[in-house]
């Protein structure tokens, strides 16, 4: 079958390309269903981490590796003998691989999509659900001030979810196009350009109840902590090897440091519901819907110039 494959190049760089001879998945058995893929979505942060050999990437010795994604929209084509609810023809979002076919358990990390759902948007429900998980984990309350650092697709969706929770969201970035998208969507009450030395003049110390870091810029930990009020929350979401900060600074603020990993079925179900009702908008964040045959070009861009991408969907 066709699958995306993460590969090691002779110069020790990595690439991700479409291959045509990947083994078919085994099954379905038990409560599993087999799906044929319609769209998959690029998970920019996770997949770039894999491409640059980051902290949660497969080791060189494990390459080539297949799939390596968690956003798949597919149609059920076969069901196992113990499947109770799903049926052939159902269209699902699943947290599974970039491949032509997938086999997943009925009670796995998936949701059956309403007929009204735009399937291109559905291909990005995974990273949207990470944003949902993060906002819930941040324990946001009506009227609080939250600073979202990084206006990539997860940050943009987090701003929308936070606004829906009644929070006063500020989003910041150094990229003019991303900031323009945030202004157009309008969920964040304040959109800040913090390029160059602007952080020092535009992010006032002690002005936020929570800071959510989707950017993962090394060495910014003290700046993030300084931005929160006493007893504020700092959420480190973007991938990094270590979190290093001045202990006395954190102690003086009595901060809470939090992290979260991925999302669960409840996050996914609620994100799907809000997108279907038009309360969270993914469509303005989709820049590329391309045939999966163009995967190498997309992943070369993600590896080398990630700022040029936003939401990317592969058509299978």
How would you describe this structure in keywords?
316 residues, alpha/beta, Quinone Oxidoreductase, Chain A, domain 1, Rossmann fold, 2 domains, 6-stranded parallel beta sheet, 10 helices, 16 strands, 28% strand, globular
Q: Globular, elongated, flat, extended or rod-shaped: what is the shape?
A: globular
Share of residues in strands: 25-35%
> What's the number of helices?
10
In CATH's first tier, which class of the largest domain applies?
Alpha Beta
Q: Determine the fraction of residues in helical runs and give it as a percent range.
A: 25-40%
Instruction: Give the SSE order as H and E letters.
Output: EEEHEEEEEHHEHEHEHEHEHEHEHE
Q: Superfamily at the CATH H level of the largest domain?
A: Medium-chain alcohol dehydrogenases, catalytic domain
So, CATH architecture of the largest domain?
Alpha-Beta Complex
Give the domain tally: 2
Instruction: Give me the secondary-structure category.
Output: alpha/beta
Number of strands: 16
Largest sheet: 7 strands, mixed
Describe it for me?
- Helix 3 crosses helix 4 (153-164) and helix 3 (125-137) crosses helix 9 (265-276).
- The relative contact order is 0.16.
- This protein has two domains: 3-124 and 282-315, Medium-chain alcohol dehydrogenases, catalytic domain (Quinone Oxidoreductase, Chain A, domain 1, Alpha-Beta Complex); 131-258, NAD(P)-binding Rossmann-like Domain (Rossmann fold, 3-Layer(aba) Sandwich), CATH 3.40.50.720.
- Strands 3, 5, 6, 7, 8, 15 and 16 form a seven-stranded mixed sheet that branches. It has a six-stranded parallel sheet with strand order 11-10-9-12-13-14, sandwiched between helices.
- Strand 10, helix 5 (176-185) and strand 11 (190-193) form a beta-alpha-beta unit.
- The termini are close together.
- The longest helix is centred in the middle third of the chain and has 13 residues, at 125-137.
- The chain has 316 residues and is α/β, with parallel strands linked by helices.
- It contains ten helices and 16 strands.
- It is globular.
